[in-house]
Amino acid sequence: MKINQHFENAALANNPTQPAAGKAGSGTTPAATPSPVPTGGVALTVSTMARSLGAASRDQAAVDMSKVNAMRAAIAQGSFVVNPEAIADQLLVNAQEMLKSSRH
Q: Rounded to whole angstroms, how far apart are CA atoms 32 and 21?
């Protein structure tokens, strides 16, 4: 089944008086008649916990832009220095945390 056929069948179920685009004998062409979007749906309920999590994530900045701008300036000036030991240490800490969480 093609994806377009699914939408055409759903459109027919919602509006049976309109012929499906591209059907034999309908007298319409797919390019001439845009297919309607199905209007059916399901009820959705969002819990208060989910709402509070969404609100909390909007309140917190995901990125500290002052640090990002400082790093950009250091890179542009050629003064940015990578500390491979700090990177390796943090990778090990993260790996240990992942192993601990997978054991529980």
A: 9
Asked if residue 28 lies in contact with residue 19, where contact means CB atoms within 8 angstroms, the answer is: yes
State the Cα–Cα distance between residues 8 and 30, nearest whole angstrom.
11
Alpha-carbon distance values, 53 to 58, 76, 93 (Å)? 9, 37, 27
Distance, CA of 63 to CA of 70 (rounded, Å): 13
19 vs 36: CA distance, rounded Å = 11
Q: 79-97: per-residue pLDDT in tens?
A: 999 999 999 999 999 999 9
Distance CA 81, CA 90 (A): 17
Q: Can you give the pTM of this predicted structure?
A: 0.34
